[in-house]
Amino acid sequence: MTATIEPETDPAVTVDLATVGVRELNAELHAPTSRHYEVRHPQGAHAVAAGVDIDLTVDIRGHVGYYAAGMNDGGVITVHGNAGTGVAENMMSGVVRVTGDASQSAGATAHGGLLVIEGSASMRCGISMKGVDIVVGRDIGPMSAFMAQAGRLVVCGDAGASLGDSIYEARIYVRGAVGSLGADCVEKEIRDEHLAELAELLAASGIDADPADFRRYGSARRLYHFTSGNDY
Amino acid sequence: MCGIVGLHLRDPELYPQLGRLLETMLCQMGDRGPDSAGVAVYGDHRRVPVGHAAVSLLPGTISAGDLAQAVRNALPGAPEPVVTEAGVTTVVAAPVEAEVLLAAVRGSLPHATVIGFGTDLAVYKGIGHPRELAGTYDLTDAQGWQGLGHTRMATESAVTPQGCHPFSVGPDQCLVHNGSFANHATIRRELRAAGHVFDSENDSEVGARFVADRLAQGEDLEKALRLLCERFDGFYTLLVTSADGFAVVRDAIACKPAIIAETDRWVAMASEYRALAELPGVERARLYEPEPERVYAWTREGVTA
Predict the structure, then answer these.
(1) Closest residue of A to B273, CA-based?
(2) N or C terminus: fewer CB in 10 A for chain A?
(3) How many Å lie between the alpha carbon of A76 and the closest alpha carbon of chain B?
(4) Could you report the per-residue pLDDT of A117-157, keeping only the tens digit for each?
């Protein structure tokens, strides 16, 4: 570990991935000697800040590769750039923020916490989400919220084709157009409690949008049970 | 898995650096495909001098001297051929028409496998780790206006030089593939029935032969790739290049990764961002992921789609 403390300009411990490996970074984050880390030169590396399990603050300056902040459990992790496939996959709690765009399967299977993507997310955003809240500043790609089980997905732009295919539960809010709805995903009425939770999620994300502009989608619950003799 | 990298230079000042940039990109994708790697370079005058055509081949056990003599014998009166050995690959260039050189090589070296031909193209294939192969190909010193590479993790056919990408089966054309085609046997039978000859059992070669067939019928890269999307089942992210073009397409499910970066000086495509991270000016590039079943194509003049 070659982490250095720079108290005068930055109270955080700085780890430069140009000189230190991701394994060393993550080992430090799993047995931390500070509460605040700054990571430089990620250059698209995989699994940056994966497995954080206490309330550390981690600022990553640059684009990251696959599985950044994966399994996060309490960390406040910000990617100041774009994220590759599976950012915050299987998050349990905490906050992961991406200031740019996210690749496929953002927040996949995540159980809790808040994932904020200020730009757009590509395909399969929130696939099999199990309780996480995901707020996307712009658009999401096709096949998002596939088999979503619990949690909330808020999209301030458009959603691609087959949104919410085979969704169990989870509530989806989209401000823009929806390419198409997947099997068993339907539009639902927005009631006061939905406007209230949307307002809370937008405020927590720091995104300025009017809850009244969104439409709500969710499960028609027709695929919960096998229907003998069904014809689809 | 498998990794793809491609670089199409817009700024001629970067041409001398093409090989060095491409090598960095290729080595970043080593983890995605450590069993073999192939590279194609367009415009490398060390290998293909101006006014020459070139054939890239896997000559087998023939020595470079015997190979040069065979080409001399097949092209009586032609100036001395330029022969470059790079591992199991040999590139032969001569100041004749590409079809003439191709026929001469095929006629005099019937057991060699042709892995690329044209007036601007050198193709290299080999087995081993991409980092070592980049040295074997002397990629660092390659120059040119366009290049692509593939790191292979074989899934459906053997690890051989012949099974290595890129597949280059039409003049100055190349195709690299991440994924697997499901109906390649059916399409291979159809293409064989139409007279196409295959060099390997590799599914990606079927894609390359299909594209070459459409280009030979006068269609452009964009149209050929749209037809490929209609005809092929399976998983694919493809990068396809021609004498003046560079195109990317992904299947409808798009589970094989791809990222494109564009600046005024270059267009680059790779499986992952880390392959692009060292390109000059990448911090100001427009970065995006290609959408499913949409063809993205560029030519040396500019964007066409």
Answers:
(1) A44
(2) C
(3) 24
(4) 999 999 999 999 999 999 999 999 999 999 999 999 999 99
Q: How many domains does chain A have?
A: 1
> In this predicted model, what pLDDT tens digit does every residue of A40-81 receive, in sequence order?
999 999 999 999 999 999 999 999 999 999 999 999 999 999
In-domain check, residue B205: yes
Please tell me the distance from the alpha carbon of residue B96 to that of residue B52, in angstroms, as a whole number.
6
Does this model's pTM top 0.90? My answer is yes
Give the CATH number, domain containing residue A124.
2.160.20.60
Number of domains in chain B: 1
Integer angstrom CA distances of residue B245 from B173, B213, B221, B284, B299: 9, 16, 8, 24, 4
Residue A225 lies in a domain: no
Residues of A in contact with B255 (CB under 8 A): 104
User: For residue B137, is it within any domain?
Assistant: no
| Euclidean distance between CA atoms B294 and B258, whole angstroms | 13
Q: What is the ipTM of this complex?
A: 0.89
CB contact under 8 A, A103 and B287: no
Query: Does residue A229 lie in a domain region?
Result: no
Query: For residue B176, what are the domain limits?
Result: 3-37+144-299
Residue B132 lies in a domain: no
Task: Provide the CATH number for the domain around residue B197.
Answer: 3.60.20.10
3-state secondary structure of B150: strand
pLDDT of residue A6: 47
Residue A9 belongs to a domain:
no
Q: Does B59 map to a domain?
A: no
CA distance A44 to chain B (A): 4
Residue-level pLDDT at B77? 87
Q: Residue A13 domain-assigned?
A: no
Q: Do B289 and A85 touch (CB under 8 A)?
A: no
Domain that holds residue A150: 42-219
Positions of B annotated as catalytic residues are: 2
In this prediction, residues B4-11 reach a mean pLDDT of 97
Q: Does the pLDDT value for residue B301 go beyond 80?
A: no
**In the predicted model, what is the mean pLDDT of residues A6-23?**
82
**Which residue has better confidence, A225 or A8?**
A225
